[in-house]
Structure formats: C-alpha cells, structure tokens
User: Fold these one by one.
Assistant:
Number 1:
Amino acid sequence: MKQGYHHGNLRQALVEAALVLTAKLGPTGFTLSEAAKAADVTPAAVYRHFAGRDDLMAEVARQGYAIFAALMEFAYNNGQPTALAAFEATGRAYLAFARKYPGHYKAMFESGLNLNAHPDLALVAQKARSVLEKAAEQLSQHMPQGKRPPSSMFSAHIWALSHGVVELYMRGAPGAQSPFTPEDLLEAGIGIYLRGLGLLPPDL
C-alpha cells in the first residue's frame, strides 16, 4: 500500500530507489514515477522533496561525490610514505569507488547534470577534484617552476586516465577480455605519464 510522504525518510528512500534503478538501467533509463514506485510511495509525494527528476539525480550524485571525496581523502592521507605512493593510492581509490558504488558512479558521470544548476553538487564535486589536485601538486613540487604543469591539468590527465580504465575495462565490452587487471592498467599508465614528466626514472 502506498504511504505517501509519511513513508519514513521519504527523501532518502527515493535516493536509494534511484540508486538501484540507475545501477541497473542507467541514469536516464527510468522515470520519476518509476522511482516513486520502487520506493513504494505515490508520485505526488516525490514533489514534496524534489522539484523533478534532475533534482533527484543531483542528490544521488551529490551523495556519490561525498563518498568519493571521503575515499580519496582516506587514500591520500592513510599513512602513505611518499608523495608518489599517495598519488597512486588516489588512482586506486577511483577504481574501487567505481566498482563498489556503480549507481552513484553513473549518476555522477552519466546523468548529464549541469553542475552550475546544483550548487551543493558542484561544491562536493570540487572537493573530490581538489584531493587529486593536492596529490598532483605535492608530487610535482621538486620540478622547476617553469616546467611544472598546473596541478589542475596534471590531476585532470590522471582523472581522465582513471575514468578511461573504468569505462573500457571494468564495465563489460569491449575491454572485459583484457589480460590485465584495471589496477595494473592504471598503474602502468600513471607510470608512463610520470616518467614523461621526469617524475620517475626511466625503465632500464
């Protein structure tokens, strides 16, 4: 029986329902009414908490970025002995997040949300990016100022590499048949990138 807006924590119940649907169908594969049905509430009750479907997906993505930022912070600060180890740990955390939180991941990166239209989402997304930027800045500190890439560009390259590994080699075809694990692919890619910057010695 539908219980309308008296259904416990309706806002979070809708988020949880949207997460399940997003993981299964993608962020555009279901309607707001279907999310309400999955949460066992009336469609009209949804609008007491969300202005529309984008508003619901923005909350799903916001919660995802909050988890993502926390995981990245933990990886970066968790007793890593060197700046390089901390930097590599953030890359592994990216893969771990995508594997463990597929609904959040899809909401964050595949929903087509305009961050400028959702200030709370934009704020937490920037927090997540800043962890990788901080790791990049620390790793490149000993490079000459004139040859040091901007930390935002440096981190964006690694973010793109991490995202590409997830998309091609963690989510089915075509990369599912790769003989290498996503972690090995990312580590090798980061190594090649850092050697190109002169931050790692060349292989002998």
Number 2:
Amino acid sequence: MKFNRNHLLFFICFVLTACSVVFEPDITSKKVNLLAPPDSAVTTISFQTFWWDIVDGANYYKLQVVTPSFINISMLILDTLVYGNKCSYSLLPGKYEWRVCAENFAYSSTFTTHKLIVDSTANISHQTIRLIVPPDLDTTNIMTFLFEWELLYNADNYNFQLYYGQNRVFSQDGESDTIRITLLHGDGPYIWKVRGQNTSSNTPYSSRSIYLDTSPPGKPQLMAPDNHAQLAADSLIWFLWKRQTDNGSSIRDSMQLYKDSLFTNPVINVWCNSPEFSDSLKVGTYYWRVRSFDKAGNKSDYSMIRKLVIR
C-alpha cells in the first residue's frame, strides 16, 4: 500500500494524541473543593477572589460565573481558564453562581458550583479599586503612561496620586477611570495610587510601583583575554569584562564572538547575567565584544573589539 504524506501526518497526530491520553491521569471522578467565597455568601464587597483547592493531575481549571444561575442564565460574566487556584474579578450588585472544574490535556472533572449575592451599599470603605495598567514593578524607559483602573459601581469619583520616591508630585480628583501622566521628575522609583470616593466614604488606596530608567548603561570594558592573545585549542577560556557603575535597573550583557572583525560570521552570541563567560574554541582567529542592556530596554555602546588567536 502506498503510504503518502497525508497518511504519515494522520499517523503522527494519532500517536501524539494516544500518548497524551495514556500519560495524562484520569481526573474525571475528582471534585474541585471551592474555598472562597463560601456557598450562598452574601456580601457588599464587589471585588471577589475566587479560590479553590489544587487537584492532583490537573494542568489548569475552568472558571465560569453567570447571573443569576446556571439553570436560568441571563448573562455570562466570566468563562476563563486559570493556571492556578485563584482568580479575582469585580462584580456589580446582583445574584450569581460560579463554578470550577479541573482539566488536563485528556480529561475534565465535573463542575463544583457555589451561589453568591453581592449587595449594593453606599459604604465603600471595605471595597478595593483594581488597578489595570501599567503593571506593578514595571521597569521602563517610557516616560508617558496611561494609568487605568476598574470603575467601582458606587464610587462618585476617584483620587489619583503620583509619588516620586517619598514625595507626592501629583494629585487629581476625577470621574474617569484613566489618566495620562508624563513622569517629569527624573529616573527612579514612582508609586501611583487610586482610591474611590463618594459623599459618605472612601476606599483604601490601591497602589503600584514603576521604575523609570532612561539612561543607557555604561560601555563595558574588556578585561581578559588580552587583545591578540594566543591560546591553546580546546582549552577552557574565560572571557571577562567590567561593567560601568550603574544605579538604574538591572543589567545583563550580550557577549558576541565572531570569526571576522565585521561581525558577520557568528560563533557565540550569548546573554550573560554576570560579566563573564567561559567556553573552549577550535583553531582559528576570532573577534569578540560585549554590549550591556538594562531591564528598561536601554543599551550601551559596544565595547572595544579584541582579537583572539587559537592555535
């Protein structure tokens, strides 16, 4: 029988699928234990964290939230895969049901379901503002940001604050869930905060950090081997260089070793978290250089080029 390409592709897909089924544990009889919020909970807190126990053999979980119930769905609120055992989401006042099942690449457990009621209240002192962008601890060389947070149903307006180090450098009240700000106070740590406000109460501030770094790292200085050094083939060679002092974000280096001085014929091109690299080389003539990159995306000039002869 002629075994053409389509037959081969089908056979490969069949084998891969069969192997997946064989090696994935069967979790169909397992049940997800929901932890929070408890079943039939009644709360005024709109920002909820759905939490459940880990199921052995599961790769991820399917979380679904509807209103008012799964037998009478008027709206699908959330349908997502979660690669962990927690997921946070803000809900408007109303009646809800939420459920979770465990899944792997071959099997799924049954769903476990809880009821939840979110009551409206004018008191927002126990609510939480969910910040969206920029992400926490973001290191960047971009100076202008769109700050965004999630609206709270019973907040009349929001207070946005920006700190540079310990000093508050900007504050503004507004009804919008976004504000565009340029960081004008130089490189360094910034903190932004938002709280919801109404006539009777305020939420606590939610905050995130940004590290602004617009300065490129200093040019690396090559230390060893010496320029025009002649070394034995297949012996371990240590490439060492020195970084310039830098008070900005974290740095890693690109170490490049080529067979030509124009750097068109690569031999080694590697990222290094510390200013060193070791390897052995075959007989030949090589050229190497280093360039530093910081976490914000700034890059240094290339170091001087050194020649290396392996005999």
Number 3:
Amino acid sequence: MTESLSTLTRRTLDDFVASLPPDQQRTVAEAFADLLASEVAAGAIGVGDEAPDFSLPGVRGDTFNLGTRIEEGPVVLSFYRGSWCPFCNLELKALQASLPDIRACGASLVAVSPELPDNTLGHAERLALDFDLLTDGGNQVADRYGLVMTVPERLRPLYLQWGIDLPAANGDDSHQLPVPATYVIDTQRVVRAAHVEKDYTRRMEPEAILDALRAL
C-alpha cells in the first residue's frame, strides 16, 4: 500500500528533528509553538470565498492567469514554500503522481512559490514536474489569499546553517513565505475545498483533492 502524504511528512519531520543538536531542537520547537499560537493565516481565503484572480509568470517563460484558466475547467491551486523545503518536495511529488487523475477530472494543477524562476525551473526538471509552476515575487498573490508569514529572526541563522538562503532563493530580504495551502476552485472561481495549515508539515492529501474535484 502506498504511504499517505501525511505519513511521509511526519517521518521526514521526525528524522530531521532527531538530526539536530539539542539547542537547535529547542529553538525550532519554540518557534514552531509560537507560529501555531499566532494569528498567521487567520483571515485566509476559505471554502465558499471567491478566489482572487491573478496573473503570474511561469518558470518556463509563460504567463498564467487564473481567470483564463478557469474558463477551461476547475483549478487546483497549491501554495508552497520553495524547492529547499523537504515537505514541499514530498507534496509536489505526490501531486505529480496524481496529475493524470486530476486532469481526468477536467482540472488543471498549478503550484506557486516566491522562489526565483531559475531556482524553480531546475528543481522542476529534477523532480520531472509536468504542471504549471509560478513565481510569486514578494508573495503578492499569497498576501491576497491571506497566507503570508515571516520567518522569525532566531531561525534565520539556522536556515543558513542548513543551506537555506531565503534572500538568495527569493530575491528579497523579507524572509517572508506563504503558509502552505491548497485550493480546489470551480469554474465560477469559487473555492470548493481548502487546506490552509500553519503547521507547514501538514498538506492536503491528493485523494482529498480528487474527492473535491469529483464532487463538482
């Protein structure tokens, strides 16, 4: 039996935390607890809301417009943090595996991150991702969806130690990221299913996405 996405992400988290020295474990745990207790994403777009329209550049040189794509069928819209995030990579691979079923429902799949196009394109090629990947410079679209969070200052030196240079990856020094979120949007641009989670290790299961699409 194929493991669920939640099982894979939980094991990845446990392995990562176990690899850290005790002082880093404490820093991560404290920052994580603060995030979960915060009001981050409290006003995020949810089920029944109209999905804000947007246009963003694709990493392959095209331009994606939600309103135009909706005319062709429902859209599955996923916001992810970046190619450096192991939980995002597990999600992207799971979405790729489900892409034939998503398309069989007449829907499109698009994933959005603030990462610069060159970084995202190379990553897409390595993972053999065959769906739209968009660059949301400055998290402008994520902000309209109510999803923006800021990496705490105490975590930034650790990110660098782990090889994660957010200013270099995103082209700005804001240290802002989207809260991971997945939306199933119908042809009237209404959100019919949503998964918005401050716990960035938890993502919408592909089967839940397909259930929402089949219910349209």
